[in-house]
C-alpha cells in the first residue's frame, strides 16, 4: 500500500516543481510557433485515421501518447527505434488480441506459447515484456503473477512500440522496450458506429462506438465504446467470451486547459489451461514433444476475470513556455482460474489493485545558440496483490469432479517512487537528448499455508537510470543517430533460490543498451524507412524454466544483439504498405553451466513480415479493397539446453482481408462497410516449444464484420 511518507514525498515534489516552473516561466524566452501535423493515428471526422495513409510522422500526438520522449517530437528525430500501429492498420487487420496487433512490428516475437488466449505474451528484442513492458496511455499497466490485464483491441486508437530501454522517463520498464496502448478518446466531431461480427468457432459479437460534443456545451465531449462477444476457440474446452464497456469524457474550456477522464470495465471468460499433453523422456522426465490430446478437463477449465480502471489526464498550459502534464489511474482485477494437471484439479484466486500517477512539467527555453525542451517530473506506482491457491489430492474420473480447497496464500505490496528529468537540446541540425532518473523501491512479500504462520520477505532497492542520444537532421530527410540507455524494473512474485527449491523475492531486473540507427523520410512517397543496430546486456531477467520437469520462475542474465529494418508507406491513394526484417541473437550469459553461451529458448534469429492493403479509387469497383500479409518466423530452440527433439521449425503464415464500402454501390448504404479477415489463411499449424514444454500455434480463423457509421 502507499505509505504516508510516499504521499508526502509526492506532494512536496509537486510543490517544488510548481515553484520551479513559475520561476522558469518568468525567465523563459518564447520560441517560434511550431505547426503540428497529422500523424495517421488520431481520429478523423468519421473516426478513421486522421491521415490518408499509415505513416506516423510523430508519436501519437494525443495527450496520452508521446511515447518515446513524453514530448511532441517527430518520429524522424526520435533517437530510438519506434513503431506505430495506427488506427487505420487496426481497422484493416482487425486484430483480436495485443499479440496479433503487434505481429507485423520488427523486433517483436509473438506466438512463443502457441495458441493461448489467457495472456498477451511476447518478446521485444528477445526480452519478455509480458509483465513489465505494457503501458496504457503512458502509464505502466500493473500486473501480478497470475493477474494480467487483458486487452480489447476495439477500445484502442493506436499502439506505439518503443524498442530499447525507456526507464529514464518511465521508471519501471523492460530493457527490451515498451508497448503503449492508446485508448479511444472523445472527439468534438460526432462519431457513431455499430459493428456486428460472426465467424469461426460459433463467434457472435456486437460492438458500438459513440462520440461527440455534449449538446449545449461545446467545451465538453464524450465517448462510449462497448462490446459483447460469445465465442468458442480451436480447443472445445476454451471459450472466448467478453463484455467490455469504456466511457470517456473530455472538458476543454479553452486552448490552455484539457482534462480527459478514462474508464473501463471488462468481464472475460477463457480457459484455465490451453496446454496439450506432452510426451516425456522416461529417464530425464523432460518433454520430447506435444500430442494432440488436450491437457485439461472441460468440466473444470473456466478462467473468469473482472478488470477495471479509472483515471484522468490533465494538460494545463501555465505560460507560453511551460505546460503541466498530470496523469493518474487506479486499476484492479480479480481472477478465478480452474485447471486440471495430470488429472488433478487446481484453483487460483488472485486479485490485485494499484495506482499509477505521473506529473511533469514541459518547459521550452533558449540558452545561447541552443533551444531546450526540458521535462521534470515525479511519479508513484503502487501494487498490492493477493493470490490464493489450492491443488487437489484426488484425481478426476469420468464420474467424479470436485473443487479443491484453498491451501496457500501469498500477498505482495510493491511501491515505487521516481524523480526524473530530460533535456532535448537543439543546435542547428544537431539533436542531443539527456535523461536522468532515480527510483526508490519498497517490496514486502508474505507467503504461507492457510491457517499456519506466514513467512515475510522485504526488499528496499534504489536505482539510477539514464539516457544519452545524439542525432543529426539532414536537409534531405536522413537522420542518423546514436544512443545509450539503461533500465530498471521490479518483479512481482518469487523466484527459485538454490537446490533446496526455496523461494525468495525476485531481484529487480536491470539492463543497458547501445543503439546506432538511421531514419529516412521520403515526403514525395509518404514513406518512412528506419534501421537500427542494438546491443542489450540484461541482468536478473525473470523467465519460466521447465527443462527439469518442473515449471518454475527463475532469474538469468542475457545479451541480446541484432539488426532491424522497417518501412511504412502510402505511395498511392488507397495503397498502404508495411514491411520489416529482424535479426536477433539472444545469448544466455548466466543461468546454469549447461546453458551459459546457449541461445535463449523460443528466440528465432530471423523474423520478417510484409502487409499490403489497397482500396480501388473510382470505376466499377470503387471502394472495394483487399489486403494480404505474410509473416515469417525462423527456427528456434525449444529449451535452454537445446534438446534436439524440441527444436522449432521455421514457419510462414499468411493473413488476408477483403472489404467493401457499400455506399459505392447504392447511396442508401452510405456508411456501411463489409469486411472479412482471415488469420493463418493456409491453416499452417505447427508445434512450438518454449521453456521445455510444447504447444501448437493457432490455426485458420475467419471473421466477417458489418460496420455502420451514421
Automatic annotation (TrEMBL):
<dbReference type="InterPro" id="IPR037066">
    <property type="entry name" value="Plug_dom_sf"/>
</dbReference>
<dbReference type="InterPro" id="IPR036942">
    <property type="entry name" value="Beta-barrel_TonB_sf"/>
</dbReference>
<keyword id="KW-0732">Signal</keyword>
<protein>
    <submittedName>
        <fullName>Ligand-gated channel</fullName>
    </submittedName>
</protein>
<dbReference type="GO" id="GO:0015891">
    <property type="term" value="P:siderophore transport"/>
</dbReference>
<dbReference type="InterPro" id="IPR000531">
    <property type="entry name" value="Beta-barrel_TonB"/>
</dbReference>
<feature type="domain" description="TonB-dependent receptor plug">
    <location>
        <begin position="75"/>
        <end position="178"/>
    </location>
</feature>
<keyword id="KW-0813">Transport</keyword>
<dbReference type="GO" id="GO:0038023">
    <property type="term" value="F:signaling receptor activity"/>
</dbReference>
<dbReference type="GO" id="GO:0015344">
    <property type="term" value="F:siderophore uptake transmembrane transporter activity"/>
</dbReference>
<dbReference type="Pfam" id="PF07715">
    <property type="entry name" value="Plug"/>
</dbReference>
<comment type="similarity">
    <text>Belongs to the TonB-dependent receptor family.</text>
</comment>
<keyword id="KW-0408">Iron</keyword>
<keyword id="KW-0410">Iron transport</keyword>
<dbReference type="InterPro" id="IPR039426">
    <property type="entry name" value="TonB-dep_rcpt-like"/>
</dbReference>
<feature type="signal peptide">
    <location>
        <begin position="1"/>
        <end position="25"/>
    </location>
</feature>
<feature type="domain" description="TonB-dependent receptor-like beta-barrel">
    <location>
        <begin position="251"/>
        <end position="681"/>
    </location>
</feature>
<keyword id="KW-0998">Cell outer membrane</keyword>
<dbReference type="InterPro" id="IPR010105">
    <property type="entry name" value="TonB_sidphr_rcpt"/>
</dbReference>
<dbReference type="Pfam" id="PF00593">
    <property type="entry name" value="TonB_dep_Rec_b-barrel"/>
</dbReference>
<dbReference type="InterPro" id="IPR010917">
    <property type="entry name" value="TonB_rcpt_CS"/>
</dbReference>
<feature type="short sequence motif" description="TonB C-terminal box">
    <location>
        <begin position="693"/>
        <end position="710"/>
    </location>
</feature>
<dbReference type="GO" id="GO:0009279">
    <property type="term" value="C:cell outer membrane"/>
</dbReference>
<keyword id="KW-0406">Ion transport</keyword>
<keyword id="KW-0812">Transmembrane</keyword>
<keyword id="KW-1134">Transmembrane beta strand</keyword>
<keyword id="KW-0472">Membrane</keyword>
<keyword id="KW-0798">TonB box</keyword>
<keyword id="KW-0675">Receptor</keyword>
<dbReference type="InterPro" id="IPR012910">
    <property type="entry name" value="Plug_dom"/>
</dbReference>
Amino acid at each position: 500500500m502507499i505509505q504516508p511518507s510516499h504521499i508526502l514525498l509526492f506532494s512536496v515534489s509537486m510543490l517544488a516543481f510548481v515553484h520551479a516552473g513559475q520561476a522558469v516561466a518568468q525567465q523563459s524566452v518564447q520560441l517560434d510557433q511550431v505547426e503540428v501535423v497529422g500523424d495517421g493515428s488520431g481520429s478523423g471526422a468519421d473516426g478513421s485515421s486522421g491521415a490518408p495513409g499509415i505513416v506516423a510522422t510523430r508519436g501519437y500526438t494525443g495527450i496520452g501518447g508521446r511515447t518515446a520522449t513524453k514530448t511532441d517530437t517527430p518520429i524522424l528525430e526520435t533517437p530510438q527505434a519506434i513503431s506505430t500501429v495506427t488506427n487505420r492498420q487496426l481497422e484493416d487487420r482487425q486484430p483480436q488480441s495485443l499479440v496479433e496487433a503487434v505481429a507485423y512490428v520488427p523486433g517483436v516475437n509473438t506466438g512463443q506459447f502457441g495458441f493461448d488466449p489467457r495472456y498477451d505474451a511476447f518478446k521485444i528484442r528477445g526480452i519478455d515484456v509480458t509483465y513489465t513492458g505494457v503501458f496504457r496511455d503512458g502509464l505502466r499497466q500493473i500486473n501480478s503473477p497470475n493477474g494480467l490485464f487483458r486487452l480489447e483491441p476495439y477500445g484502442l486508437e493506436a499502439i506505439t512500440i518503443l524498442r530499447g530501454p525507456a526507464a529514464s522517463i518511465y521508471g519501471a520498464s523492460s530493457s527490451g522496450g515498451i508497448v503503449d496502448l492508446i485508448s479511444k478518446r472523445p472527439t468534438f466531431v460526432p462519431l457513431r458506429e455499430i459493428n456486428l461480427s460472426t465467424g469461426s468457432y460459433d463467434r457472435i459479437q456486437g460492438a458500438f462506438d459513440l462520440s461527440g460534443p455534449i449538446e449545449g456545451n461545446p467545451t465538453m465531449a464524450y465517448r462510449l465504446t462497448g462490446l459483447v462477444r460469445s465465442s468458442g476457440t480451436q480447443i472445445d474446452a476454451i471459450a472466448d467470451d467478453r463484455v467490455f464497456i469504456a466511457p470517456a469524457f473530455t472538458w476543454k474550456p479553452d486552448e490552455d486547459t484539457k482534462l480527459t477522464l478514462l474508464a473501463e470495465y471488462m468481464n472475460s471468460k477463457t480457459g484455465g489451461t490451453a496446454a496439450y499433453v506432452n510426451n516425456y523422456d522416461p529417464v530425464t522426465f523432460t518433454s520430447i514433444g506435444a500430442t494432440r490430446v488436450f491437457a485439461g478437463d472441460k468440466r473444470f477449465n473456466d478462467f473468469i476475470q473482472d478488470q477495471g480502471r479509472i483515471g484522468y489526464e490533465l494538460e494545463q498550459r501555465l505560460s507560453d513556455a511551460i505546460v503541466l502534464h498530470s496523469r493518474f489511474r487506479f486499476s484492479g482485477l480479480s481472477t478465478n482460474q480452474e485447471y486440471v494437471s495430470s488429472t488433478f484439479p487446481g484453483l487460483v484466486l488472485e486479485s490485485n489493485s494499484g495506482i499509477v500517477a505521473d506529473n511533469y512539467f514541459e518547459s521550452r527555453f533558449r540558452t545561447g545558440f541552443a533551444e531546450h525542451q526540458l521535462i521534470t517530473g515525479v511519479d508513484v506506482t503502487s501494487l498490492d496483490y493477493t493470490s490464493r491457491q489450492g491443488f487437489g489430492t484426488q484425481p478426476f474420473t469420468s464420474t467424479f469432479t470436485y473443487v479443491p480447497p484453498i491451501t496457500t496464500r501469498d500477498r505482495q505490496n510493491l511501491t515505487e517512487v521516481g524523480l526524473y528529468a530530460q533535456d532535448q537540446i537543439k543546435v542547428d541540425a544537431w539533436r542531443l537528448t539527456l535523461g536522468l532518473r532515480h527510483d526508490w523501491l519498497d517490496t514486502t512479500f508474505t507467503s504461507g499455508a492457510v491457517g499456519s504462520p506466514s513467512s515475510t520477505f522485504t526488499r528496499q532497492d534504489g536505482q539510477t537510470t539514464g539516457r544519452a542520444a545524439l542525432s543529426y537532421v539532414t536537409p534531405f530527410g536522413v537522420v542518423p543517430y546514436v544512443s545509450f540507455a539503461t533500465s530498471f524494473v521490479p518483479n512481482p512474485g518469487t523466484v527459485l533460490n538454490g537446490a533446496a527449491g526455496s523461494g525468495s523475492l525476485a531481484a529487480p531486473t536491470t539492463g543497458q543498451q547501445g543503439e546506432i540507427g538511421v531514419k529516412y523520410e521520403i515526403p514525395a512517397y509518404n514513406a518512412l524507412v528506419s534501421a537500427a543496430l542494438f546491443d542489450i546486456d540484461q541482468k536478473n531477467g525473470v523467465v519460466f524454466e521447465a527443462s527439469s520437469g518442473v515449471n518454475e520462475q527463475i532469474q538469468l542474465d542475457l545479451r541480446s544483439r541484432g539488426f532491424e529494418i522497417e518501412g511504412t508507406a502510402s505511395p498511392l491513394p488507397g495503397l498502404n504498405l508495411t514491411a520489416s526484417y529482424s535479426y536477433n541473437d539472444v545469448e544466455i550469459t548466466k543461468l546454469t553451466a549447461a546453458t551459459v553461451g546457449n541461445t535463449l529458448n523460443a528466440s528465432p534469429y530471423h523474423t520478417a513480415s510484409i502487409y499490403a492493403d489497397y482500396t480501388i479509387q473510382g470505376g466499377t469497383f470503387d471502394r472495394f479493397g483487399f489486403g494480404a500479409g505474410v509473416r515469417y518466423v525462423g527456427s528456434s530452440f525449444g529449451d535452454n539446453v537445446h534438446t534436439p527433439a524440441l527444436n522449432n521449425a521455421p514457419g510462414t503464415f499468411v493473413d488476408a482481408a477483403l472489404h467493401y464500402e457499400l455506399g459505392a454501390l447504392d447511396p442508401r448504404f452510405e456508411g456501411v462497410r463489409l469486411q472479412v479477415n482471415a488469420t493463418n489463411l493456409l491453416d499452417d499449424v505447427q508445434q512450438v516449444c518454449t521453456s521445455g514444454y510444447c504447444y501448437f500455434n493457432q490455426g485458420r480463423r475467419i471473421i466477417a464484420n458489418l460496420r455502420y457509421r451514421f
